[in-house]
Amino acid sequence: MRRAMSYPGNRVKEDDRDGADVSKVSVMCNFKCRDGKALEMEALLADMVEAALDEKGVEVYSFHRGEENEFWFFALLHDRDAMRRHNQTAAVVAFRAEFDNLVASPPRVSVTVPVAAIGLELDVDEHIAAERPRSRDAARIDLTGAT
């Protein structure tokens, strides 16, 4: 797993931990389950979402299904401490044991720091956000394939 990289424009206000880095952390993961195990995987993922529901510091926690046996995961956590606490819960330990029996190969996991988003509170420092150039004429990406 890669370490989260600090991005100075997305630092949450420092708390009373002597200036510790308290950036939000996003986790993205992609994996495939074994043939014939997709429904079991969906049930396991739903159980994990339920277990994370009331965890302190878990802001977004979602699994998504792509084509065939491919799944995606996205989480937004308040900081690295929240990620560490989450990864040490009994629910995650139990999840990993069952997950390993259903997954076809090791998942691809990225731990990052969010830079910009719609619908997520990122708590970007106001002075840094004010310095960022904004353009309504920015290039748009056509995802429909139309020319």
Question: Would you mind describing this structure in some detail?
Answer:
Strand 2 and strand 3 (70-77) form a beta hairpin. By secondary structure, the protein is α+β, with helices and mostly antiparallel strands. The N and C termini lie far apart (38 Å). The protein has helices at 38-52, 80-87, 90-102, 126-131, and strands at 25-32, 58-65, 70-77, 108-112. The chain has one domain (8-12, 23-129): Alpha-Beta Plaits, CATH 3.30.70.100. It has four helices and four strands, in the order E-H-E-E-H-H-E-H. 29% of the residues lie in helices and 20% in strands.
Question: What tags apply to this protein structure?
Answer:
4-stranded antiparallel β-sheet, alpha+beta, 147 residues, disordered N terminus, Alpha-Beta Plaits, 4 helices, globular
What is the CATH architecture term? 2-Layer Sandwich
Distance between the termini: 38 Å
Structural class: alpha+beta
Which band does the percent of strand residues land in? 15-25%
Strand line-up in the sheet with most strands: 2-3-1-4
CATH topology: Alpha-Beta Plaits
CATH class: Alpha Beta
Name the overall outline: globular
